[in-house]
Structures are given as structure tokens and as C-alpha cells.
């Protein structure tokens, strides 16, 4: 690897390599050796930038959570446009067709990683919790424009949407669910709290 490469570039190179391994081979395949081979760098590079492999994994997960912020902002901007169901179908599909499902499996697979993340993320599973916050924020914005009933609880609805969508996408080895299946799930959950029962 050339000298003088910025630390952020090295981190992103390693994080992107972790994405590829998780999506292609699953959490059991994500080892330090596989990571550096996938990233095309020497093993020493990993240890120069991270305390150990679990430190790398913790920083990787938190980085992927941080990357959801622009998606959350864009979703909030959609309040009052198109349909609530369509907006949420697209948002849920984007979350679960990303590396999010594989990260949830990784967190389940590695006890030490969960313990490290608890220092900065005291409750919940980081990727799914952040996705639920994003969905809840959007639903509150839709409440403000009158497309979600005032008596609805956006945070509870968001948790139900995230949990239900995760069940659709949980089989990493199978085909992703069709958009229509995600839309039916969204519409079924939101029907009681939308005008006329139609999101």
C-alpha cells in the first residue's frame, strides 16, 4: 500500500471490504485475515488503525449507523408527498437491502462486539434502532401534515414496521422479498392510523 494514504481512506477501504464479505459470505466469514485480503492491504494496516479486531468491528458498525443520517433526513423531507405507504416501502427496502441485515447477524454472532458497542449504544441493536428512529421521525412529520392520525404512536409504529420488515428480509440466503410484499406489510400496519385506512 502506498505511504501517505489518509487514515480515513484506509478506514473506508476496510469498512467497504467488511460490507462485501458480510453481504457475500455472512458474519462467520468476517475475520481479520479475510478482511485484509478483501481490502487488498497488509494485516498490519488493520492493527495500526484499530486496537484489535473487535475495535474495528465496533467502529465499523457505528460508522454504518452514522451513514443512515442522510437517508433519515431525505425521508423526513418526503412528508406530505407521494404516499406514506410508498415512502415507507422504499425506505424499508433501502435499509434491509443494505448491509443492515448482515450487521444484525454479526451482532448476534459476536458477544464481545455487543459488549463493546454497549459502551456507546446502551440499548437495542444499533442498525435496527437507528432505522426505527428514522421511521418514527418520518411518521411524526406525517402526523404534522395530517396524514397519520393524531392519536397514533409513531415510535411504536416504527418498531412494528422495522421488526416486521426484518422478518421478511431475515433469510440472507434467499431472494429479497418483492416490493409488493413490503408494501402489503406497510399498508396493513398503517391502515388503522391513516385517513380512510389507506396509507
UniProtKB/TrEMBL annotation:
Keyword list, A-Z: DNA-binding, Transcription, Transcription regulation
DNA-binding region per Swiss-Prot/TrEMBL record: 31-50
Residues of the HTH tetR-type domain: 8-68
GO MF terms held by the record: DNA-binding transcription factor activity; transcription cis-regulatory region binding
Organism superkingdom: Bacteria
Gene3D superfamilies the record matches: Tetracycline Repressor, domain 2
InterPro entries linked: Homeodomain-like_sf, HTH-type_TetR-like_transc_reg, HTH_TetR
Signal peptide as annotated in the record: none
Protein name (Swiss-Prot/TrEMBL): TetR family transcriptional regulator
Organism lineage: Bacteria, Bacillati, Actinomycetota, Actinomycetes, Micromonosporales
